[in-house]
Each structure stands twice: as C-alpha cells, then as structure tokens.
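hiii so um. not sure if this is the right channel but i have a protein structure encoded as tokens and i wanna go backwards to a sequence. like what aa goes where. can anyone help
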C-alpha cells in the first residue's frame, strides 16, 4: 500500500535511508528510523536538531521505506501554513505517521489539542509516530502541558550537523548513488565556495550531475568553476 500524502505533498525522490549519511553522531537515530519504517522498534521517536541536520530527510525517507515494505505512511510537514489540524483526523489508522517541524504549531491551541488526541489514538491503535523539531521536547513552547508530557515520553535523538569532513563524505555518497565520482578536492572546493547547508550542497550536486551528463565531463575543480560560474 503506497504512502498517503496530504494535499498532494510530494516526497523527495532522493530522500532515502540509504542516501542519509549518519556520520559519527547519528547512526542510532538512523537505526531507530529504519526500524520504524519496517514496522518494528520504538512506537514513538522524537528527532531534533538544527537546520540541515537531516530531520526532513529522515522523515521522508521513513515514509518511502515504509511504502517499499508495503506499509502505508503519512508525512505531514507543518511548515506548510495551508494545512489545517483537521488533517490529523483518522491518521491513527495509518501504521506510520511522520510529523515534521512541530515547533511551528507550538502555542496554537487547535493544533496542540489535535496532536494530543492523535498521540493518544495512535497509542491505542498501536501505530507508530515519528516527529521532528528544531529543539528538544522540553524546549518547545507548547502551552498544553499534557502534550508537552507526551512529546517527552518517547525515545529522543538529537541529530548533529555534519563537520566538514563528513559533509564531503555525504556529498560523495550522494554522488555515487548518481553514478558520479566526486574527488576530495572537488568536495573541499564546494564547501569553500558554496552555501554550506547540506540541502544547498545537494542541490548544487544535482546541478553538477546534469551538467556532467550533458557534457560527458568528469567532476573536476575547473569544470565545477565553469558550471557554477565561480
């Protein structure tokens, strides 16, 4: 059964568990998410970390992986302001529910109450809930104390941003999956001359991939300079 998506929200094709580079600090979080996507492991996991640490990647990857296992999933990105809390109604019937950026609804009574009741229904239904935010549960500006308590009750993983060495390795992993060879020198050049957020770096890699394919050229520093007009 395929992933059920609200309001035509599309998952990124490249957001997969195999394309997530865990580095030295995030392998336990990756394992927990992988298990959830297989219908085993913890019933509730809370991920938090700074922008670019891979929160959205992991939630979308979990939804992809669940679908590949024949398990329905629901991915809800709360940065989409057009969403209404009514989208939570009936979500407990879906084996894996992934809710992204929950910090965005802190202080909104309708959303907080909706999430609280959904949490309880998911527990009763024995479905799984994977949530992500930019801060730890205790630092969310949640008004409803019962919801704050629920969000602090599960297994919590802090996602750590990658250092420069690991950013290059993450780029190289993504390049390999695209059939590209990304030398260390090119990875270092990208870090020194491009926005250092991983999302931006991956977008740059996509652009280089298209150019490399079109011109049948390997990724070298001169070629990268030419494509990116640096």
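sure thing!! here u go:
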């Amino acid at each position: 059964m395929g992933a059920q998506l609200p309001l035509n929200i599309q998952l990124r094709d490249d957001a997969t568990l195999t394309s997530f580079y865990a580095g030295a600090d995030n392998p336990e979080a990756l394992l927990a998410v992988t298990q959830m996507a297989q219908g085993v492991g913890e019933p509730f996991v809370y991920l938090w970390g700074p922008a670019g640490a891979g929160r959205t990647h992991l939630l979308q990857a979990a939804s992809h992986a669940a679908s590949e296992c024949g398990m329905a999933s629901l991915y809800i990105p709360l940065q989409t302001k057009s969403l209404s809390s009514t989208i939570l109604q009936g979500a407990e019937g879906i084996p894996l529910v992934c809710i992204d950026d929950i910090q965005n609804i802190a202080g909104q009574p309708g959303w907080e109450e909706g999430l609280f009741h959904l949490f309880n229904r998911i527990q009763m239904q024995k479905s799984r809930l994977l949530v992500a935010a930019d801060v730890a549960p205790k630092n969310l500006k949640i008004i409803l104390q019962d919801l704050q308590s629920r969000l602090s009750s599960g297994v919590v993983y802090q996602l750590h941003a990658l250092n420069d060495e690991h950013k290059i390795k993450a780029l190289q992993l993504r390049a390999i999956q695209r059939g590209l060879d990304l030398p260390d020198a090119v990875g270092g050049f990208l870090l020194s001359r491009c926005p250092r957020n991983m999302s931006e770096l991956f977008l740059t890699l996509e652009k280089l991939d298209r150019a490399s394919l079109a011109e049948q050229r390997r990724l070298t520093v001169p070629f990268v300079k030419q494509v990116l007009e640096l």
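oh and The two ends are 46 Å apart (CA to CA).
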